[in-house]
Amino acid sequence: MPTDPQAQVPQVQARADAVPSSAPFLEIDGATFAYPGRPPAVDGVRWRVGAGELHCLVGRSGCGKTTLLQLAAGLLRPQSGTVRLQGGPVPAPGPWLGFMFQAPTLLDWRSVIDNVLLPVSLQRRPQPRDVERASALLEQLGLAGHAHHHPRQLSGGQQSRVALARAMVLEPALLLLDEPFAALDAITRADQQDDLLRTCRRHGTTVLFVTHDITEAVYLGDRIAVMHAGRVAADIRVDLPAPRTQAMRHEAPFNHLCARVRAAMDGVDGMGAAA
Q: How many domains are contained in the chain?
């Protein structure tokens, strides 16, 4: 039988639907972190994320987005303020947490399905249930016929899908993504965004997504946090219907939201919290 993330880390629920809706899944209250000899990378941030929500972080390079992700994951500890997950301290990284970065970082000598199973293999010997879950993820992402191929046989978009399946194979409660689609062409990137939305909604995963692309943030996010100099300068709710469709990109509400985010980044509008 597979190891249950709830059993290993009891303070983190495995699915968003198991979390009381009245309590935030993730709450960052006045968190500050500075690297030695440098101004704070994160400076008094207050940020609340509901269970099952997808929050995007945007901002210019060096504004603290990646450091804030690391605080949320427990990879860094705030020097002041608190970071709480489901009302308690953030536990050590484990099956409750998934990562996906800009480069897929697949292992060329392992098959696609063995790459997906890597997080399991690092903890224990994969069981039939694990292989079933990995195979189901590959099927959901249109890669069922590539399970026994190797990464070098795949396109960039296919490799990105394998990385997403790998991040999801342990059914994490929280998924952190740091510009995972930045190197892809526009059409493949749009397809990957749809894959991400479908997969995370299906599994009830809470997602924090860093991007420099305003249209990507509006398309994916339930909320968008605009960061500037280590602070959340604007918190913008994305009132677009779900499921998202590519046609929305050409409609006025979508373009209005993109303009609001750009204005907040430029300091013209929205530099306070926006409900």
A: 2
